[in-house]
Amino acid sequence: MSVIGSMSDASAVRSQFVASLDDQSRDWKLVLRESHHRMKNTLTLLGASVRRDFTRAGTRDVSLAVDRFERRVVAFGRLYQLLSDNDDDSAVPVGAFFENLCGALSEAVLEPAGVRCEAAIESGVLPASQCHRLALMLTELVTNAAKHAFPNKNGALIRIDMDNRDGAWVCTVADNGIGATGPLQGTGIRILEGLARSIHARLHGEAGEGGTRVTIVMPAA
């Protein structure tokens, strides 16, 4: 009977191992889809800003437009590097990581769109895997707001807050735009929900005349 029991136990372990590999494979595919989705959307915004700059630029302003374009391409490279870092469990300083992310987002996405960014990031550490996926989520939310929240760019602002409260990281992306008229939809929200599940996080959104606010609550451990 001990032999049968051992075979049963071994079979259960193998099943759990295979299920774990399947989960990891789905998670990785999810991260890759979001990375590609994010690159496409960011390049779309970058291309629109370049067309606008060069359309408005006179002969004397072309060199300035080229300089701006070069800075945005460099910022986009920094942003993509941050979103493509190793997905491992090494400890990452939250403050430095997300301040770099917000800086790259501002230069590559928000400034060309005429949107100002404010950020308040609390110090702490997280595994690189959690930082990476949380960064993908924040980038999706910021880029979505830059694209849709501000038909009138006057005073456009996106604020990012990250706080460590009662054993959980609370991350908020808020804009002062027109406010979402319905639930978030499309590829972006499906990937957001999948990424949230992969780090055991919860998503909560609210919208009104003052803009849209989306909050991610993620366990610290």
Overview of this protein structure:
It is a single chain. This protein is α+β, with helices and mostly antiparallel strands. The protein has one domain (32-219): Histidine kinase-like ATPase, C-terminal domain (Heat Shock Protein 90, 2-Layer Sandwich), CATH 3.30.565.10. The chain is built from five helices and seven strands, in the order H-H-E-H-E-E-H-E-E-H-E-E. It has helices at 2-56, 62-83, 94-110, 128-148, 186-198, and strands at 91-93, 116-121, 125-127, 157-165, 168-175, 202-208, 211-219. The chain is globular and about 50 Å long. The model is unreliable at 1-25 (pLDDT under 50).
Kindly list the characteristics that best describe this protein.
single chain, 221 residues, alpha+beta, Heat Shock Protein 90, five-stranded mixed sheet, two-stranded antiparallel sheet, 7 strands, 58% helix, disordered N terminus, kinase, protein histidine kinase activity, transferase, EC 2.7.13.3, nucleotide-binding
By secondary-structure content and strand pairing, the structural class works out as alpha+beta
- What proportion strand? 15-25%
Number of extended strands: 7
CATH class value: Alpha Beta
Instruction: Compute the number of structural domains.
Output: 1
CATH fold title: Heat Shock Protein 90
Figure out the total of helices: 5
Order of secondary-structure elements: HHEHEEHEEHEE
Overall shape: globular
Q: What is the strand arrangement across the widest sheet?
A: 2-4-5-7-6
Report Rg: 21 Å
